[in-house]
C-alpha cells in the first residue's frame, strides 16, 4: 500500500466529512430509505448529528420528476418566531422565482405570459412578507367604528290653514373607539389560501410536484417547533407540496394539543424515517462501517486495506466510539492518521485515547445543538458519569422502564443525551441478573467519557458480549441507575422542570 494512497483517501474523507454543495460522495443507502423518500408523502427523517441526514436529502435533488426546494433551518436559528416562518417563506419564494425562467420562453408567447404573471404574484407575496417582518409579533390596533341611530317625531296643532300634523326625522352618528389584539401568526395564517394557490400554480407550470426540504429542524426553538411545522403542513394539505423534514428525534417537538391540535402527528400527517445505526445490533453496525470504507475507497480511486492498519478489536472499538454515527467514525479515523505510519497496527487503547481527546468536540456540538438547554444536559451528564464511571467503575448501566416514567425530566435528559451521542442504547428490553421481575433498558456511556485508555478496576463491556453459553449476563449485571438519587441531585442544582419534553414525538 502506497502512503500516497492512504493520504489521498484520508483527505477525501476530510473534504467530504460535512455535506456541502461540493460534496462528491453519495448516500450509502443500506436501509433502502431513498426509495421511501421519493414517494408523494410527508416524511420526518430522524438521525443523530452526523448520521447522514443532509447527504440523504441532497440525493433527492437528483429526482427528475420533482422540484426540490431546500432550506437549512440553522440559517434561521436566531430569528424569533413567527418571523422565522416569514424568512423561510421568503427563501422558498426566491428559489421558486429562480426556477421560472423568462428568457427561455421568448418564442412561446402563452407560456411567457403565464410565467410573467406567476413571477409577478411571487414578487408581490415576497413584498407582503417583507412588510410583515417590520410589524411586532403582537400588538393592539385602535379601531374606530361609526354607529348610526335614526330618530323620528310627529307634531300636531293649529295653523292659519287649519288643524294639521307633521313629522320629522334625523340621523344621530357616534364614533366608538376600541382596541383589537393583532397576532402576526394569525395574519400569516390568513394568507394560507393565497400561498397554497401559488404552490399549485407553480407546480402546474413546472409540471412537477414540489418537495420542500427543511433540514436541521431541531435548530428551531422547541416551544416554537409545533407551530412552525404546523404552518408548512397546512400549506401542504391538498397541494402538490410534500414536506421532507430532517431532525434529531428527541430535540424535536412535532405537535401539541392545547385548545386545539397543532403540528404534525407521526403515522397520520407524516411518516417517520429512522437513519441511526444503534448498538442494539452491533455486528450489523460493524459490517456497515466496513462497507462504508469500501465505498470511500471506490470514490477516492484507491484500494486501502484498512484491516492491515487497524486490528479487528480496535476497529470494533472505533465503531463503538462512534456510537454508529458515520461522521464521528470518520473523524476518529482521520485522527488516527499519525499512528498509521508505525510498524504496528492501531490498537484498542489507541482508539480509546483518541475518543477521550475528541470528547471536547462533542461537548461543543452539544452546546450548539442544544443551545437553549445545554447547561441542564451537561449537569445531567456530569451526575450520571460521576455515579456510573467514577463511582461504580462501569461503562454501562440499567434503567427501569417503569420507574423512569415517574421522572419525565430525567427521561427527557436520557433521550437527548442518547441523541447527542454521550449515551448509547444497547438493549431496550432486558432483565437484571438478579431476576427481580423488572424490565430494563441497558445503556453504555460513550468511550470518550472514560478517565483514561486503561482504567483500573473497571468493568468494560461491549454490545452483544456473551459468555460461553451465549448469555449476556455481564450486561445484565451492570449497576442500576438510582433515579431517586439522580432526581435529588438535579433538585439540588435547581434544574427543576427546565427541559422541554417531547413525549409527543413517538417512535
What distinguishing features does this structure have?
507 residues; alpha/beta; 3 domains; 3-stranded antiparallel sheet
Describe the structure.
It is a single chain. This protein starts with a helix and ends in a 15-residue tail after the last helix. The chain is of the alpha/beta class. 41% of the residues lie in helices and 19% in strands. The chain contains 16 helices and 12 strands. The protein has helices at 3-15, 33-37, 53-60, 83-99, 109-133, 184-190, 192-206, 225-236, 282-300, 312-322, 326-335, 348-369, 374-392, 408-419, 473-476, 483-492, and strands at residues 43-46, 66-72, 138-159, 162-183, 209-215, 241-247, 255-257, 261-263, 271-274, 396-400, 423-430, 440-445.
Beta content: 15-25%
Number of strands: 12
In round numbers, the mean pLDDT is: 86
Structural shape: globular
Domain module tally: 3
Q: Pairing-aware structural class of the strands and helices?
A: alpha/beta
How much helix is in the residues? 40-55%
What characterizes the major β-sheet? 5 strands, parallel
Task: Output the CATH topology of the largest domain.
Answer: Rossmann fold
Radius of gyration: 31 Å
Q: Give the CA-CA distance, first to last residue.
A: 45 Å
Spell out the helices and strands N to C.
HHEHEHHEEHHEHEEEEHHHHHEHEEHH
Return the CATH architecture of the largest domain: 3-Layer(aba) Sandwich
CATH class of the largest domain: Alpha Beta
Q: Which regions contain 5 or more consecutive residues with pLDDT less than 50?
A: 177-181
**How many helices?**
16
Amino acid at each position: 500500500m502506497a502512503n500516497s494512497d492512504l493520504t489521498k483517501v484520508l483527505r477525501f474523507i476530510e473534504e467530504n466529512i460535512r455535506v456541502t454543495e461540493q460534496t462528491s460522495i453519495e448516500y450509502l443507502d443500506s436501509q433502502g430509505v431513498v426509495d421511501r423518500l421519493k414517494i408523494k408523502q410527508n416524511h420526518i427523517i430522524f438521525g443523530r448529528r452526523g448520521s447522514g441526514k443532509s447527504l440523504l436529502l441532497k440525493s433527492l435533488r437528483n429526482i427528475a420528476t420533482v422540484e426540490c426546494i431546500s432550506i437549512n433551518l440553522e440559517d434561521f436559528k436566531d430569528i424569533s418566531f413567527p418571523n422565522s416562518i416569514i424568512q423561510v417563506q421568503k427563501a422558498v419564494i426566491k428559489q421558486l422565482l429562480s426556477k421560472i425562467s423568462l428568457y427561455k420562453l421568448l418564442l412561446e408567447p402563452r407560456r411567457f405570459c403565464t410565467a410573467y404573471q406567476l413571477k409577478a404574484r411571487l414578487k408581490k407575496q415576497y413584498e407582503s412578507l417583507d412588510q410583515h417582518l417590520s410589524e411586532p409579533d403582537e400588538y393592539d390596533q385602535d379601531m374606530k367604528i361609526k354607529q348610526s341611530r335614526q330618530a323620528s317625531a310627529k307634531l300636531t296643532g293649529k295653523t292659519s290653514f287649519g288643524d294639521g300634523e307633521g313629522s320629522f326625522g334625523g340621523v344621530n352618528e357616534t364614533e366608538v373607539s376600541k382596541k383589537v389584539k393583532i397576532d402576526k401568526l394569525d395574519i400569516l395564517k390568513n394568507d394560507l389560501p393565497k400561498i397554497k394557490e401559488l404552490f399549485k400554480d407553480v407546480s402546474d407550470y413546472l409540471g412537477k410536484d414540489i418537495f420542500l426540504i427543511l433540514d436541521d429542524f431541531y435548530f428551531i426553538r422547541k416551544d416554537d417547533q409545533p407551530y412552525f411545522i404546523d404552518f408548512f403542513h397546512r400549506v401542504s394539505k391538498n397541494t402538490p407540496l410534500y414536506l421532507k423534514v430532517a431532525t434529531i428525534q428527541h430535540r424535536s417537538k412535532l405537535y401539541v394539543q392545547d385548545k386545539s391540535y397543532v403540528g404534525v402527528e407521526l403515522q397520520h400527517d407524516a411518516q417517520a424515517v429512522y437513519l441511526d445505526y444503534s448498538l442494539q445490533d452491533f455486528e450489523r453496525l460493524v459490517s456497515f462501517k466496513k462497507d462504508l470504507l469500501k465505498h470511500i475507497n471506490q470514490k477516492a480511486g484507491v484500494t486501502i486495506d484498512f484491516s492491515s492498519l487497524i486490528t479487528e478489536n480496535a476497529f470494533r472499538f472505533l465503531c463503538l466510539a462512534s456510537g454508529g454515527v458515520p461522521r464521528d467514525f470518520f473523524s476518529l479515523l482521520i485522527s488516527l492518521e499519525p499512528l498509521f505510519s508505525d510498524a504496528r497496527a492501531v490498537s484498542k487503547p489507541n482508539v480509546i485515547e483518541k475518543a477521550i481527546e475528541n470528547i471536547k468536540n462533542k461537548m461543543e456540538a452539544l452546546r450548539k445543538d442544544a443551545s437553549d438547554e445545554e447547561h441542564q444536559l451537561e449537569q445531567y451528564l456530569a451526575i450520571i458519569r460521576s455515579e456510573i464511571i467514577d463511582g461504580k467503575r462501569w461503562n454501562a448501566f440499567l434503567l427501569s422502564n417503569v420507574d423512569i416514567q415517574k421522572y419525565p425530566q430525567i427521561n427527557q435528559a436520557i433521550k437527548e443525551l442518547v441523541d447527542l451521542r454521550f449515551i448509547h442504547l444497547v438493549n431496550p428490553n432486558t432483565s437484571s441478573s438478579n431476576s427481580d421481575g423488572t424490565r430494563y433498558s441497558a445503556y453504555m456511556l460513550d468511550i470518550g467519557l472514560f478517565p483514561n485508555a486503561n482504567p483500573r478496576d473497571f468493568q468494560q463491556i461491549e454490545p452483544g458480549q456473551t459468555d460461553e453459553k451465549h448469555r449476556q449476563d455481564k450486561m445484565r449485571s451492570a449497576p442500576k441507575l438510582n433515579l431517586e438519587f439522580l432526581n435529588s441531585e438535579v433538585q439540588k442544582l435547581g434544574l427543576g422542570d427546565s427541559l422541554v419534553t417531547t413525549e409527543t414525538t413517538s417512535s
